[in-house]
Design a protein that fits this description.
This protein is an alpha/beta fold. The protein has 13 helices and 13 strands. The protein is globular. The structure holds D-gluconic acid. Residues 17, 20, 158-159, 162, 215, 280, 339, 377, 384-385, 393 line the site of D-gluconic acid. Residues 17, 20, 158-159, 162, 215, 280, 339, 377, 384-385, 393 line the site of D-gluconic acid (GCO).
Length: 427
Amino acid sequence: MGTNEFPRGFTFGVATAAYQVEGHIENDWSEWERQGKCKDPNHRCGRGVDHWNLFDHDVQLAKEVGSGAFRISLEWARIEPVRGQVDEAAVDQYRQRLLRMKDAGIRPVVTLHHFTHPQWFHRETPWHEPSSVVEFRRYARICARILKGLDALVITFNEPMVLLLGGYIQGVIPPGITDGHKSMLALGNIARSHVAAREEILRECGRCEVGISQNMLAFRPDRWWHPLDRALTRLAFDNYNHAFHRALTDGELRIQMPGLASTRQRIEGGRDSVDFMGINYYTRAHLRFVPKPPFLQFQYRDVHSRGLTDIGWEDYSEGFSHLLVELHHKYGKPIWVTENGIDDRQGDRRPQYLYNHWSQMLSAVRQGADVRGYLYWSLMDNFEWLEGWGPRFGLYSVDFETLERRATPACHYFRRVAQSGVLVEPG
Ligand code: GCO
């Protein structure tokens, strides 16, 4: 393998999530939007980018950029809109779509839970109740029928720490709870739900590989000389980046976030319960101790004067290789980059961004990390949660009026590298 070659069999692909693209979904997020709780209270996801109706076209677009894998998510609210009542037509739709994707030569990467829930979930069996594990197992059993024989890469949960912090500590996303104790119960049940779901999936679909996607940040103390900034940074690495992965490798969930939440729980069946480590990497955060609750200030800084991205994040590819190598050393598992991308309205920064991150990924591979694939976030522009329709992460830009997808300058470059498996500079 030359220094600029990706390992044989390395997969390039793209990522999406149901609620952000499909459209026409009634779930806890659509309710949240109607309650005016997004940054712009008038933002609605509504028809999304109509991926539900344009699925085959979008698979074609993924193919055009050389994708060997395509990450989608299943929308629980479509599959089980009423508790205990399965919408068989939706189940069949998902299965047919994934079969067509596979026929097109693209490996399905399927997320079971990407932030959203049916509206009954938080009212009847919220995550802090043990019954949530029973519900999720039942849902996973239905998903297993969809996935049978597909040899998919399956992600049970996307970014559990983001759901926990946003939904259970800060209360800014559904279910809007601000309770440290409940948050820890919830996280434990999410870990148990992963274990239960993996059992269901592997029973039906022995060749699937099952893991989670963990949002990982390159943390840095805002003031190197300040012992409390440094202590916060260590805590952030340990709790935010690693606690969940660790729970699924050694079977114990240990969180220690002073002033916010802490716990120590055994996760039955959690030991060695992932087949791969999924990482979503975007940026670096600077942490500073402040003498009033929550005692932590979190900031993005443009350290290298590259200009923050449109959403205000630092473009810090250097942190990527460190995190990948660290994942390798800590767990020794295959790694999938399940998201990485830039919101770039003009589309002209994206090729260089890709080159920088791919270089770092190759450097991690040379240091021994067993990285199997890279999925770009996102195939096309979509609904960015609290930020609504502002950010533009897509390899294809979308005209939100006509829904027309247009190739950005990065498409050509992506295809070139994805198809050859050789990293060249853009241009
Ligand atoms: C998340 C998700 C995606 C986002 C993407 C860009 O991290 O919130 O997994 O749904 O859209 O990360 O922010």
